[in-house]
Design a protein that fits this description.
Blueprint lengths: L3 H19 L6 H26 L1 H4 L3 H22 L5 H8 L2 H13 L5 H18 L4 H7 L3 H23 L5 H15 L1 H6 L10 H26 L1 H6 L3 H14 L5 H17 L2 H6 L1 H9 L5
Helix pairs in contact: 1-5, 1-12, 1-14, 2-4, 2-10, 2-12, 4-9, 4-10, 5-9, 5-14, 5-15, 6-9, 7-15, 9-17
Length: 304
């Protein structure tokens, strides 16, 4: 049971990536981004709003930081992923997002004054080689000639945005309870999504897109974080963090089964190198020296 809950969370987040692709042509990216977090906000409000209101004086000094976290972790991360889904397969999206833990560790060097280790640098090189192979679809000269596609670039920026979110959560150490802090971030992120929502060509809710919005809002944004945090309590930060590597695997399985996507050799090679590099970067000597970074990655994976 201790393993089941966080594994179920990773499965929900993998399914959320598939929902990104299913939303293409069904609902505008800006609309589903807003409706997703609005749904999560409404669901969490009965329990968390009274608690947040009681803590309003403690929250007020930290509002600028909470607003920045809402921008990075909710607004930018999810919006970029929805836009990228128009040109990137769910399988590739899942593999690109798999670089997030490594980006988190790399960003921790300048932000948290952490020191890189030789094993981490080797792991980073291997992971980015796998990412290059994935982006080039196995043809590296084409990547040099044509560059990175717009959708792939958006996914990289989404991964980078969330990695920065992870590091800032650890850097700022906002003295608020986890769920109350998350609620305020969701509130801020939802507010920031209003302008692009109002500018979207279509914001209509239909019988085709309502199930996608409800899954993203209820399961990916509300249920999965609770399951993940329960896993953190039962297993600890380091053991739970390893389970995040299941997300690209589950994404590929669901994309093949539900979307009919084809798993190509470059997916296997690029994804394998990415995960190998992450494994080397998280090897025990690295975790001992960068324990704080690993814990930051684990605790904030809840918003994927």
């Amino acid at each position: 049971m201790n393993l089941l809950l966080p594994i179920l969370a990773t499965l929900i987040w993998a399914a959320s990536t598939v929902v990104n692709r299913l939303s293409v042509g069904v609902i505008d990216p800006a609309a589903i981004s807003f409706y997703r977090w609005l749904t999560a906000l409404l669901v969490l409000s009965p329990v968390l709003l009274p608690k947040v209101w009681r803590l309003r004086r403690q929250i007020r000094p930290h509002l600028p930081k909470l607003l920045m976290l809402g921008l990075l972790g909710m607004s930018l991360y999810q919006s970029l992923a929805y836009f990228a889904a128009h040109t990137v397969t769910a399988t590739s999206m899942g593999l690109i997002l798999a670089t997030m833990p490594l980006l988190t560790v790399l960003l921790a060097f300048p932000v948290l004054n952490a020191r890189p280790t030789p094993m981490l640098l080797i792991g980073a090189l291997i992971s980015f080689a796998g990412l290059a192979w994935l982006l080039a679809a196995g043809d590296l000269p084409s990547l040099w000639q044509q560059g990175v596609g717009q959708g792939e670039l958006m996914m990289l920026l989404a991964s980078l945005s969330y990695a920065l979110y992870c590091v800032l959560v650890k850097r700022w150490q906002i003295p608020l309870p986890t769920w109350e802090s998350l609620y305020v971030q969701i509130f801020c992120g939802t507010l920031l999504l209003i302008p692009p929502f109002l500018l979207a060509p279509s914001i209509a809710l239909t019988a085709r897109n309502i199930p996608l919005v409800l899954f993203a809002g209820l399961f990916a944004s509300a249920l999965a974080p609770g399951l993940w945090m329960r896993g953190l309590q039962n297993l600890g930060a380091e053991k739970t963090a390893v389970l995040m590597n299941l997300v690209p695997l589950f994404t590929a399985i669901l994309a093949i089964g539900l979307l009919g996507e084809t798993l190509h050799l470059y997916h296997a090679v690029g994804g394998g190198l990415i995960l190998l590099g992450i494994g080397l970067a998280q090897w025990k000597p690295t975790r001992v020296k960068a324990r704080a970074v690993t814990q930051a990655t684990s605790k904030v994976s809840r918003n994927v």
